[in-house]
Amino acid sequence: MKSMCFALLVFALAGCTTVTVVEGNKVEEAVGNLPQLGVTSSVPVGEVLFSQFRYWRKTGYVLRDSANVSIGGGQVHVSSGDFLVKSIVEGKTAYCTEKPAFSMIVGGKTACFTDRENKNVLNEVKVASDVMWWSSELTTPLAYATSEIVVPRQDAMKRELIYQGISKDVLRLTYREYFNDMARPAFFQDVTYDVSTFPAEITFKSVRLRILSAGNKGIIYQALSGF
What we know:
By secondary structure, the protein is mainly beta. Helices cover 2% and strands 62% of the residues. The protein has 2 domains: 2-25 and 60-150, no CATH class; 31-55 and 152-225, no CATH class. Keywords: Signal.
């Protein structure tokens, strides 16, 4: 855990209203492929049957609701999907917005929320002045949940093959490439294979797949090599 002035977390305060960051500010690399090579796997139509990836992520919490709350002479505005970091505020667990959410006439500050009953709903909001915290009860509690977000980097990538079904011995796949933030594919390609008997082996780029059976409900296969 790392204790710091709240200013060092996301915004500047004249005093030192402290927050101890517990979870959500650590960026980790994720690299690998799914499924493991040589393992018998199955997926339904429309699902990814093989992916290879390298990206960076943060695991924390995300709001499931939106709210506007008046507090301390200003306004807290949060939206569904806002990322929260788990912290300690005034000795208690709190979930603080990663981006500024509290504003007065000018500027913006982070807002923190507490889940007093540990039921995955936030029922109190806190914002910091220069020397103290202002607190306000939420008339409508906010739902939240654990979540992972991708941290955009130029060297992030993901490649995946999606099973699209089989008809008249023609097996269909879609190939997709993602880069940087991986929010949408940068490139995709539809490919087909003539498969009349099983097991059968097919190849796309350097990916080799042994198809054990395939139908319009799903496919059973083994990945033999990756991209």
